[in-house]
Write the structure tokens for this entry.
Amino acid sequence: MIPHGKDLKIFTANSHPRLAAAIAKNLGLSLGASTVGTFSDGEISVSMHETVRGSDVFVVQSTCAPVNNNLMELLIMIDALKRASAGRITAVIPYFGYARQDRKAKARDPISAKLVADLIAKAGAHRVLTMDLHAPQIQGFFDIPVDHLLGAPILSSYFMESFEGKMDDVVIVSPDLGSVGRARAFAQRCNTTIAMIDKRRPRANVCEVCNIIGDVKGKTCILVDDIVDTAGTICNAAKALLEIGGAKEVYACATHPILSGPAIERIQETPFKEFVFLDTIELPEEKKLPNFKIISVGQVFAEAIERVYEELPVSTIFNS
């Protein structure tokens, strides 16, 4: 077992410096001095401008778009810290890219999530701190400890405050079969009922709603998912709840706002009352719609980092 270092330092690459700064601020620290750029040929350049010898170092980097660049920045920064004799290196990955490639869906498919896990460990990380892996069993892909934080307690707390005294009229909805477990846990936290959208997907990024399982007529529905990528699934689900199920209004929430391709246009065309995201991914200004609510995970990650440094359990953060 690798003991924690003599002091705690937070570094960041380029994927989400604002979140890294918020985490450091919550810990009463300044971000570590470093530069992550590129050489003229496009190769990534990393320079550390302060000593890390013997330190407990946390590198904050979401592996979101541009996924491969951000992943390489993380790997090269970990390697630089290892060669600079850091006492312990934790890769803090609020959004873990490649998580949806967690199995062989058809013959000769790669399992890219496992490959990325191996790369992070091989680069020199001693542990990983992340949030809402698309498939929780991805933790088993790593040969190093993984602390897996949950977005649902943050999101459910927000809605319980928003609908205080009105939760009897709220239904938590899973947009597909794969999110039923997540929606059920969310509904238990909110002490309310659950419904599900039964759909089939004829081809990639195209889905067709078939049926609504559960009573949503006249109810306020909250769609719950971990990732919103092209937004086809969640927008089709919202339209079905309103047009087929007779729902009064539809809210939605997700941990990771990837929002690629036609996502923004689809969300604009769908009558969501409010769409709530966590800031695990930096959302550019042009993608921030008036009905978006962004909740910071800076405080949660800061508390988790402090607990990792002090060798305390991380799971107790969400026990309440």
